[in-house]
User: What shape does this take?
Amino acid sequence: MRKIRWYVGLFLLAAFCCLGRREDSKAQERPIYLDNGQMAEDSDENISEADLYQVGDTGEVHIGNEGQLPDGQISKTEYLSSDTAVLQVDQTGRYQIVGGGKAVITVKGYNSEGVLVFSAGHCFRCCADVSGAALGSTEFHTYIINGQAEDLVIPFTDMPNLVYYTFGYTSSNAGMEVSCTLDPQAKVLKIFSVNKGTTTLAITINNMTFTLTVMASEVSINKTSALLTAKGTVTLKVKGYPGKVAWKTMKKKVASVSAKGVVKAKKTGNVVVYAEMEGRKIGCAISVVTPKLKKVVNAAKKIGKGKYSQPRRMKKGYYDCSSLVWRAYKKIGKTFGDRGYAPVAANIAKYLFGKKKRIQGGLNNKNIQGMKLRPGDLMFLTGAKNGRYKGIYHVEMFVGYQCEGFDSKGKPILGTLWAVRPPNYYYGNPMGRP
Assistant: This one.
């Protein structure tokens, strides 16, 4: 049997006097009109909310044209309910809904000679009485970590079976994006908050309203990326979470972390250090490099704060892509075959690839998520019809990773950082390692 569901959008709700209060809607008077030969529609296909009845609904069953039929007047009428635990009807044709489920009223009319002259039926689909149900709690706190909200699962107590039901909700905070769904089989609410804030939800099930306050807080970390040299340290801090935080490192040989979030670099490599809170994680991508390589990366970032100009590319305060790379690496004595003037991007690539310093796979997802790249690696854009080596027309320096979250298996999701461009600006291009 199909379960009928309705989901109501978010609207502004007036403040409630008491959290957890349930409110009854008045029972409706719903008359039924039956024609002779009309059969009760038993299928649940295309059932709308208007087709459902609530406990307490009443009405009169009217037959034919005020009891006058083409083949004579009805002298005797019988009204029968298929399930009196759901629906009760007296012999005047007045019915009342008393429980949840499906029931059929069958009406039979006889003439003065006892001959059946009228037969019809109507099927009632009735929502259960939920007045005895209650939420397990009326106040919940959820945390948004790495931009990912946590599903709240909120159970009901004493909730009857919801074969048929109506469901909707409103929110008191129009600026807070909150979704609420009902699982009728598990008899739980599922709450999902997209952004931070506090709201009171009014959740209506079968004409009963339950109120619930949801508070959503955003949890952040002070750094998602850090560049260190051996024995260097950085202190990580989590903000917005009041509970206990457990600090962990994914590679103890590269960097350790104390119970207070103090990271200490041990050897060159890449590692994610993270805080764990009730099974959820937030982290920082740490790259440990040599002092020379850190000097190159810092120089590239500083040069990149100047003005882009190809004509003035070699002057202080100006740069283009290849002069930035050349000038940064020149600080540690690497000049890509030209000690006096920065070669173009294509010639830098030709120099590196000729010395078998091309990174297998280049800038692909495997290398990124596997942390196979290291700060200072160079990325090249190809495809230009410029007559240069492999049509290369641009070079950019990779300067590290940032931890952007964790997948369902607990593995970190990593993004790329660049000397000049925004995070994750490039993908799928060849790379070299000076």
